Structure formats: C-alpha cells, structure tokens
Automatic annotation (TrEMBL):
Name used for this protein in its record: LL-diaminopimelate aminotransferase
Reported cofactor(s): pyridoxal 5'-phosphate
GO molecular function, one term: L,L-diaminopimelate aminotransferase activity
Aminotransferase class I/classII large domain sequence ranges: 38-404
E.C. code: 2.6.1.83
A Pfam family matched in the record: Aminotran_1_2
Annotated organism of origin: Oceaniferula marina
Keywords on record: Aminotransferase, Pyridoxal phosphate, Transferase
Amino acid sequence: MTINENFLKLKAGYLFPEIARRVNNWTEANPDKTGDLIRCGIGDVTEPLPQAVRDAMKTAVDEQGVAETFHGYGPEQGYGFLRDAIIENQFAGLNISADEVFVSDGSKCDTGNILDIFGPGNKIAITDPVYPVYVDTNVMAGNTGEADENGAYDGLVYLPCTADNQFTPAIPEEKVDLIYLCYPNNPTGTTATKEQLQAWVDYAKENGSIILFDAAYEAFIQDPAIPHSIFEIEGAHDCAIEFRSFSKNGGFTGVRCGYTVIPKSLTVTSSTGEEVSLHALWNRRQSTKFNGASYPVQRGAAAVFSPEGKAQVSALIEHYMGNAALLLKTCQEIGLKTFGGENAPYVWVQCPEGVDSWGMFDKMLEEAQVVITPGSGFGAAGEGYFRISSFNTRENVEEVCRRLTALA
Ligand code: MLT
C-alpha cells in the first residue's frame, strides 16, 4: 500500500479551515464573547439567493417531480440553455462559442482539477500572495518539492506582489509553462489593466505558456476600463483558460456552480510532436470524472441572466461594494494603508507598525471579536498585511468599522 506522499508536503491545514479551527478554539475559551463575533475572514456571501434564482430552482425541482419533465444525467459539459446564456451575457463579441464553456460545480474545483490535463515537470508561476488552492493543488499533484521555513515550495516560481510594485507581478525572466493569474485579485483586491494583461498574453505566446485566468470576481469591477475576461486580450484564445463562478455575484457559495472556458484553438504539442487540443482533454476529463452540475442548480444559474436576475445581482454587488467602501474609509481614517476594495470585494490592509499578519488576526479576534484573514496565509509576500472581506450584512460591516476605530 502506498499513498500520495505529496500530501505530506502540505503546510498545516488549508487556510480557511485553519482559521475556523483557531476561531473555534477561541470561542470555546471565550463563551461569553462568542455572540459578538463578526466573520470577515473567508469570502463567503451572506445575502440571500436572488429571488429569480430561487424561483427558477423551485420550478426545476417541480419539473423533476413529473415524468414528462424529469431530467436524469445531464450533459457533462452543462446544459445548452446555460452555456448559451453565458455566451450571450458574458462573452458577447469575444469570439467564444457555447461549446467552449464547461459548466461545473464551482471554480475552486475547476482550478484544482485542471491539473489533470497537464503532465509532470511543468514550471509553474504563481503570484505571491495567492489564492491557496493554486499552490496546494500543485503540491498534491507532485509539481513541487518541499516547502522552506517561509512556506515557499521548491520548484514553484513565485511572483511577489507588494506595495512596492503596486501588487503587479513582474513578468518572469525565465520561461514558465503555467501561469496562474486572478483578476480582480484575491486576496489583494487589485486589478490588471488591458496593457498589463496584454503583456502576459504576449509572454505566454512567445514562450508557449498557458495562462490559467481566474475571473471569479469580475462582476465586482466598477471601472469600465478594466477587462472582465482574458479573452478581451488579443491572442488570449491561443494561450489562456478562464475560470468563472456564480458564487460571489449570484450568491452561489452554498449552491455551487461555476464554469471554465477553453477555446478550441488552444493546443499544446505532445512529446510525440502531436498538436493536442486542451479543450478535447478537458472534455475527456469531465466526461470521465464528472456528471455535470445538477439540473435545478443550472436553471438557477441561468436565471442570473434573466432581466430580474440581473437587477437582483446588481443590487447584491452594490451592497457588497458599499461594504467595501465603508471598510476602506474606516481603515484609511485610522491611518492604515489600504489596497483593493474598489473593484473587488476584498480590502487588503497593511498591518500597523510592529504587528505581523497572524498577530493582527489574534488582535482583531481577541480585542475586537472580528475575524480577518492574515495576509501571510496567502503566501510569504502577504506577511505584514491582512484581508477584510466585505461579504457581510451592512449592520455587521458598520459594527466592524466602529470596532476598528475603537481599536486604533
Ligand atoms: C476566499 O475567501 O478567498 C474565498 O472565498 C475562498 C473560496 O472562494 O474558495
């Protein structure tokens, strides 16, 4: 018997369960203060599912109760009604077709599972700080060596994002095979301009690299100049895969639906010199390992694009971005340096002098009963920062602002 020993290289627990574990320890030790706790750690939505989504899901459940409208296994790639709605509403004019969209149960799964179609020995670039799924899934897949004392894995190419470079990763000087980019960025809340993304696409085309572009937060973009999709960039159809989610815009964190876009023009040369389509490989992977997101969930996702759904989603985005604006204003008023929060639901804050990321986590928990995410949990370059999620009720965010001010 053997196990996948790559798992043994993983540092501690996955970040968010690790935070939950520490919070649970604290609540057990402080039962009298538990009622005051406000969670601004994990980016989990708090507002109810849009009415249009609930109505569509209820209708779909009722259809499942009638033989004539019952749906068994659906297409592994997603129902046509949802793929068409995605193209019409999210990729119009971007030269992407419905059969290049693969519907799934969320983009966390897709960003991890995508490694199934890539082989060993690839050089992988990730920004630092970064959404931990990209790193941990590469560790599990055996694409890294061991971690050093700062948690940096041997074999990964880290692209530091700090205040000094405006959280814009430098294009690597060496040749890398896979590049993970997330815009609007989790955790820093910063964005990339069209020119910056063009530079990445040009690099990828020159070096035969693939960009894995996570656009889970695109709906939060307020500035019309900021691209929503990598496929707005010339040449991206030959070098990029995009991940999208219904979690944060439609409130689907507990419902689960996302999708991955792989242009058919995206090919990689195999070891025998054959041009292999990544779309075909992913299609094969999904058909084998996945049976599609459920019918009621896909009906709910399609309702996000109905006129009522669009209005309800806009109201949700406005709500969370209103929260972000309050958090930004308060942090700035108490003299903290902030980033992000203007086109993303995350506010990235520099810790006060002399306090490190986990120190700030403890301080906020113990002295303000507010859960934040320590920047160092997203990578070594996140040390000295913390992330506040704006996914919360307005009442809670206003209370967090009061407590931050009192703490200062
Ligand atoms: C986060 O807090 O970074 C995300 O919500 C986690 C996730 O989407 O998986």
